[in-house]
Structure formats: C-alpha cells, structure tokens
Write a structure and sequence with these properties.
- The mean pLDDT is about 85.
- The longest helix has 30 residues.
- This protein has about 80 residues and is mainly α.
- It has three helices and no strands.
- The protein is flat and about 50 Å long.
- The two termini are about 15 Å apart.
Length: about 80
C-alpha cells in the first residue's frame, strides 16, 4: 500500500508498517507454538485451519479499486 496512487493511503501504510510487522511475527510465533505443542494444541490448530482454509482464495480477490493496494492475483 505504500506505493498506492492515493497519497493519504500511502502515508498511512508507511506509518503502520512497523506495527504490521510486529503483529505478523507475533501471530506466526503462536501458530508455530500451538502446532508444535501438545497433541491437543496441534489438533486444535489443524481443526481451525481446516475451517478457515476454504476462505483463503478470498484474500486474493480483487478489491474492486484500481490503483489502491497490490495486484492481489500476483501475490497468490
């Protein structure tokens, strides 16, 4: 989003990058902990991912706004 054609959106994205990186790292740490933890935590993590997996393609659906954000299909 830092490269957005919308200058205000690009500015907000630039300021929020540090926080986004922190949250990405924090959540990925928990996924690893739960997946590598007890048999129960691993089973729960797998069950949660099984429920959410059908929605993954929606992450890459076009937002309907050209020039704002990345080309989602290229990220897929």
């Amino acid at each position: 989003l830092q490269g957005s054609a919308d200058a205000e959106l690009a500015g907000i994205a630039a300021k929020s990058l540090k926080e986004v990186r922190y949250h990405r790292q924090h959540s990925s740490d928990w996924v690893v902990r739960l997946g590598d933890g007890t048999e129960e935590s691993q089973a729960r993590m797998q069950a949660a991912l099984a429920v959410l997996w059908p929605y993954v393609n929606e992450l890459f659906a076009a937002a309907g706004v050209e020039g704002v954000g990345p080309a989602w299909r290229e990220l897929e």
